[in-house]
Amino acid sequence: MPGNTLDTAAHVVQLALTPIFLLAGIASLLNVFTTRLGRIADRAHGLLGDPHCDRTELRRLNLRSRILDAAVLFAACSGALTCCAALTMFLGALQQVAWGAVLFTAFGGALVCAIAALAAFSIETILSGRTIRDKVDDAAEALDR
Question: What's the alpha-carbon Rg for the chain, to the nearest Å?
């Protein structure tokens, strides 16, 4: 880093750490998404073993897994773009080049992808709740008979 002082280097490191907090949050989201995908897979395997399985529930599980796949994809893209933003900060400091447009694009893209991942997760959660409510309603109807 020619011409840079230790204070300048420390400042660049501090700035580059900011997106890493977003990356930690995205990693937590990915953990939640994969756990839910595992639960969907377990439920689907259980239903497939039953000759009288509910095809509506299987279709809903299929839809939920596809929505979670999209959430995982968006979150992974958000993580990659966050890493690109941090790398852009370092490279800009090393080369003493203003890469503001690249930085804003990468970090903005990361935020958009994170929002999309959260939106997909919200939709999947609503579908999950709908399935539970339908089962409760069916059980209540069976008890009333």
Answer: 22
- The pair of three-digit structure tokens given for residue 121, joined into one six-digit string: 């997760």
Question: pLDDT-derived band of residue 36, with 50, 70 and 90 as boundaries?
Answer: very high
Residues 134 and 116: their CA atoms lie apart, in Å, by 27
In percent, the amount of the chain with pLDDT more than 90 equals 52
Question: Which residues, including other chains, have CB under 8 Å from residue 77's CB and lie 6 or more apart?
Answer: 109, 110, 113
* Chain centre distance of CA 78: 8
- Output the DSSP codes for 12-72: HHHHHHHHHHHHHHHHHHHHHHHHHHHHHHHHHHHHHT-TT--HHHHHHHHHHHHHHHHHH
Q: Would you say residue 1 has pLDDT above 50?
A: no
